[in-house]
Amino acid sequence: MRSDVVSGDLFVGDVVGATCIIVDDFVSTGSTLVRAARAARARGAHRVLACVAHGLFMPGAETALADPAIDRILVTDVVPPFRLPVGPVRDKLDIVPAAPLLAEAIRRLHKNNPLTDLLVF
């Protein structure tokens, strides 16, 4: 087994009836998100949401991410989702702007203010 692949074999916590949020730095083909979502569903998760910083959406992502194990995908607008065709995956995609958060971080750094509360939502 490769060490850089999420297998879903190890799972910690009780998620029965819960909404699970999978957080990842980027999505390429979507296979890692789907494996994690399926693992959560297999352990009783009611809903699975994916939060991703960078949506690269390489070829094959539209097929993988159409998997019903993932209910919604939240992604920043840092990389426009131009590779995703209109269809089921685009319909469950929520795109949020990154610029306001980055601008606020820069403003706080300039004024020597803390950034810690920007990490809480």
Keywords:
121 residues, alpha/beta, 22% strand, Rossmann fold, globular
What's this model, at a glance?
By secondary structure, the chain is α/β, with parallel strands linked by helices.
Task: Describe the fold and architecture.
By secondary structure, the chain is α/β, with parallel strands linked by helices. The chain has a single domain, classed as Rossmann fold (3-Layer(aba) Sandwich), CATH 3.40.50.2020. Helix content is 26%, strand content 22%. It contains four helices and four strands; from the N terminus they run βαβαβαβα. It has helices at residues 31-42, 61-64, 88-91, 99-110, and strands at 19-27, 47-55, 72-76, 93-96. A four-stranded parallel β-sheet has the order 1-2-3-4. The longest helix has 12 residues, at 31-42.
Write the layout of secondary structure elements.
Blueprint: E1 19-27, H1 31-42, E2 47-55, H2 61-64, E3 72-76, H3 88-91, E4 93-96, H4 99-110
Helix percent reads 25-40%
**Structural class, from secondary structure content?**
alpha/beta
Please, what is the oligomeric state?
Answer: single chain
Number of domains: 1
- Give the SSE order as H and E letters: EHEHEHEH
Our count of helices gives: 4
- The CATH architecture can be named as 3-Layer(aba) Sandwich
Please state the average pLDDT score.
Answer: 91
CATH topology, anyone?
A: Rossmann fold
What is the CATH top level name?
Alpha Beta
Q: What does the overall shape look like?
A: globular
Beta-strand proportion: 15-25%
Low-confidence stretches: none
Q: Kindly report the spatial arrangement of strands forming the biggest sheet.
A: 1-2-3-4
Distance between the termini: 36 Å
Please tell me how large the radius of gyration is.
Answer: 16 Å
* Number of DSSP E strands: 4
